[in-house]
Request: fold
Amino acid sequence: MKKLLSITITLIVLISFILIPTISGEVMVLNSVSQTISHIDLSAGTVNNTFALTGIYPNKMATTGEFIYLTNSADDNLRKYNIETGNLLATIPLELYSNPYDIIIHDGHAYITGMLTDRVYKLDLATDTVVAELETGVAPLGLSVDNNLLFIANSGYQYPSYLPGELTVIDLESFQVLETIEVMLNPQRMAIDDYGYLHLVCTGDYVDETGNIVIIEIETLEIVEIIPLDIYPINIVITPIDRVYVADGFGNGLFAYDLPGYDIVHDSDELFSIGGSALAIYEELLLVADAGDFLSNSTIRIYDFAENLLETYQTALGAIDFAFAQKNSSVSDDDHLPSPLIVTYPNPFSRSVEIMIETANFRQGEVSVEIFNIRGEKIRILPGEDNSVQWDGYDLSGSRSPSGIYFFRVNNGSDTLQTGKITLIR
Reply:
């Protein structure tokens, strides 16, 4: 009996060791009230809450391999820090009363929104100087980049109310406005999924009108879906397993839905975790900052993608952003297995499309493909023969599907191998 108990305990320990991701690396937390950057060493489990001092009302951070760049709204500048030591290296002035808000780094440049000047500024990282600026829309906040497109969320905020929200799309080659899309009230943050869609958080007015997630197809720049929420959303992240988390602006927790079907996982009546003043994905971890009432220390909660709480840390007052100094170097052997190459032909198609798996990293005979329409509804499940599946454009009821864009998900037993997009033309 004792031997059996010992074996059982050993197995539990081994299974736990295998399933729980190794936590290592370095996390930076921006504390707006304390005006500091905290440094968390995940391997050692230690926190340094005075790693660096910021300017007045810091907003957002972005990092390169060597530096941290940080926006200070009240000081109208950027600060540049050594990412290893936290030493201040430079203070970069921006336009007076610009109220710099978000910052994103792409292809040797940093892009910064000026909330009060209705502009975006382009900074050359080689010289740390502003080389261009462009008027975008009213009160620009969040930024995102996809290939050669820069997306800017124009909140429309004009005290004491809001103008209609807009999403400005900028071509980075010419640094000119490509298109402006009217969206819902008070757009602030956004994230881009692996299917070619931008998820835009429209917060609402914090009083009467709650928020929405507006889904925009990047290729056509058209709104394809609106997810209404009963909260005032603010932050958003998308995990590698296609779960989208959206944080409530009052710190009550996280709304969540899965891709590609937009199936709700955590609604406003059953939010996940607590907090959400900052969200981030780091390796196989979900990081949630809980700033509470902004008058006491913040709590950083670290979860795995199964939503198990792994660690908690206390940082300084008003945690509002994350940045990372290095990637987790501890990986399993499975991380080095080749990803299956999924080929679709012809695509676009009119009569049938073949979905083929080109590598042998899967279990023969267990392949299936699920087909979803643009609304995320599952319309067909196709069993595979060896490494090939064909779809004839008909749904579960035997009806012909109309022309349009469809998504597919390739499954190998209980594992999702890959997802993709196909176009049907009648």
